[in-house]
């Protein structure tokens, strides 16, 4: 399997004196002690894992576990402009087919990767209310400098895929929550990015729409074979869509594996608590 990302010994600290915090970590001081004494937050601590090409890796945990903070490290939103990271985030650059460390790569290279290779889908959709559906979806292409005729063609293709072709001239406030999220998906797909980072994209939706969009993500994945890193706090959602699941708590990954691995062989009591309501209700093919 091809590693799209390889994350090694990743720490993320929020606060002004990250050097002092890293020294405290290396000296064996706890996350809680550092927060109390140094008034800094360790959002991610000594995280090591790989993300394989064309898989759906689900990162899950309770609020404050570090899952969204970790996700935002994978496109440089955290660690470059917000907080400070150390370690390695090795990314397989689609242009050069070479691995680069996103923590150290030049800013213009990182911006290029964000524009063309790694797209983000947010929980609150992030739509611009003054733009129509088509104009919202076209926005990444405008940033890329794509000509108007090509933008229109690509936008129409992606709106057809997510079932919103007839709504292209409407504004976000005229759409339901589920439809707004589909606009966000179309906007992510229109960039042609190989990687989609999805930060609790369905958590604000009602259960029926949420289930429908989960099904649609799986269908789209079958068609486009994207690498998807999906954050959720819902274990049922993680089991349904994840090729593998990484469970986080207090900034650390407690266990990573297939849904079957996680349910049948929980690595610790915290993981076991996540699986208690699920075990016995799912049958896995062997």
TrEMBL record:
InterPro entries: AAA+_ATPase (IPR003593), ABC_osmolyte_uptake_ATP-bind (IPR051921), ABC_transporter-like_ATP-bd (IPR003439), ABC_transporter-like_CS (IPR017871), P-loop_NTPase (IPR027417). The keyword Manganese does not apply. Residues 22-275 form the ABC transporter domain. Keywords: ATP-binding, Nucleotide-binding, Transport. One of its GO terms (molecular function) is ATP binding. It holds the Pfam family ABC_tran. GO terms for biological process: quaternary ammonium group transport. This is ATP-binding cassette domain-containing protein.
